[in-house]
Amino acid sequence: MRFSYTQEETDRALALFRVFAKAFKSISEHSIRDSKEHGFNPTEFAVLELLYTKGPQKLQQIGSRLLLVSGNVTYVIDKLEKNEYIVRQQDPRDKRSIYAKLTDKGEAYLDEIYPIHALRITRAFSGLSSEEQEQLNQLLKKAGLHSQHLLFR
């Protein structure tokens, strides 16, 4: 395991972090604007988007997939359920597992707004060619996996 780095390596890593953070904030603003425009906070919108694109999810999986603590997941699920966008369902094979699933109302609403959201996110990345987008996707995955691996060493 290597713990000493040259000043050049450190400066490059810090500059990369700043650029990455600014880019993430700028691109995330597109999604945040979408969520607010439709009356959701960003976390609620992220949960709806996850259920819309990936189907029903275990409550525990929602938290880990969206990097949320369980208390936040419960609060968001409660609110979305109260507004009839989602419903909780018990897994018939494992009574301990609870799934969140879009209701017909939630599905219809996302059918309406998600294509607009997808276009806005596409537009946010339109400064990169398709090859650059794919390269960035691969590099971010690689960096994220390596960084995650280092946390558990």
From TrEMBL:
Q: Which Pfam families match?
A: MarR
Q: Which residues form the HTH marR-type domain?
A: 13-145
The cross-references to SMART domains, in alphabetical order and at most eight, read: HTH_MARR (SM00347)
User: Does Transport show up as a keyword for this record?
Assistant: no
Q: Which domain of life is it from?
A: Bacteria
The alphabetical list of record keywords is:
DNA-binding, Transcription, Transcription regulation
Protein name as it appears in the record: MarR family transcriptional regulator
Taxonomic classification, please? Bacteria, Bacillati, Bacillota, Bacilli, Bacillales
